[in-house]
Amino acid sequence: LKKYFVKFYNRWDMLIVPYPDVKKQLKRAGIRTNIQVAKLGVDINKFLPAKNKAYYKKKIKLPDKIVVGYVGRICKEKNTLVLLEAFKRLDPNKFFLLMVGDGNPDIVKEFKEYKNCKVTGFVDDVEEYLKAMDSFVMPSLTETTSLATLEAMSCGLPVIVSKVGYMKEYIHRNHNGLFFPRTNPAVLALKIEKLFKDDHLREKIGKNARKTVAYAFSWERSINKIK
Fold first, then answer.
1. Which of 154, 203, 150, 196 is nearest to 175 (CA)?
2. Are 157 and 136 in contact (CB under 8 A)?
3. Interval 91-110 mean pLDDT
4. Are 135 and 159 a contacting pair, CB within 8 Å?
5. 2-49 tens-digit pLDDT
């Protein structure tokens, strides 16, 4: 299959890829076609910081707690069980877990059985759920750009991510996000607690996250690059 796709791609005039590492990987695989980078875009007018988080928490029937959220498939490659294990180490009277998405039935069942968690299934109005969150976690074992993370950042959320894919390039530690070792739930729990013990750090990361997306990942910038 690899040989077939290399031959197939080499017949094209141009390949458009979402971030520089993909270009490097394709070049190493023997693809000689002209490869251009056009980053994914986020609708920054739709994914906005919430003016009233309490309103969105009430709207989707969440308790009055610190809401830590995730958006995407609930499955092995997204490493979601590490998030669940980390969450079990946190104070259940203080923190609540919001899983926006669906996936592997066995893994989803584990989240649903945990009382301090809400699993929504797939939704169309993702931005409303992001606006109810106080922070966002992307624990993936493998990622490309992670549009879900960019959308969370556009909503001004402080994000905690594993150091994979393009996330390791556009996120800078203690500036617009935090990293954690992807197989270590204990460290992830500590990072979540760190955010909510340090108001200044949390607010700084959230504001810088929004600025990062508005400057480098807006739909307008992405569309203009593709044109």
1. 203
2. yes
3. 97
4. yes
5. 999 999 999 999 999 999 999 999 999 999 999 999 999 999 999 999
∠ at Cα 215 (139, 26), nearest 5°? 60
CA gap 112, 221 in Å, rounded: 39
Span between the terminal Cα atoms of the chain, in Å: 31
What is the residue-averaged pLDDT of the chain? Answer: 96
> What's the CA gap between 175 and 177, in Å, rounded?
6
Between strands 14-17 and 34-37, the pairing is parallel
Quick one: DSSP state of residue 174?
T
Closest C-alpha among 3, 159, 142, 2 to residue 68: 159
Residues 6+ apart with CB under 8 A from 189: 86, 87, 89, 90
Counting Cα atoms < 13 Å in the Cβ hemisphere of 105 gives 0
The span from the CA of 25 to the CA of 142, in Å, is 15
Sole residue written with tokens 């309490």? 54
Ranges of H-type helices in the chain:
2-9, 20-28, 53-59, 80-87, 105-113, 126-130, 147-154, 167-170, 185-197, 199-216, 219-226
CA distance 21 to 141: 17
CA distance 9 to 12: 5
Phi, psi angles (nearest 5°) of residue 218: -75, 155
Surface-to-core class of residue 33, CB atoms within 10 Å of its CB (0-12 exposed, 13-18 middle, 19+ buried): middle
In the numeric block, the tokens 């593709």 are attached to 226
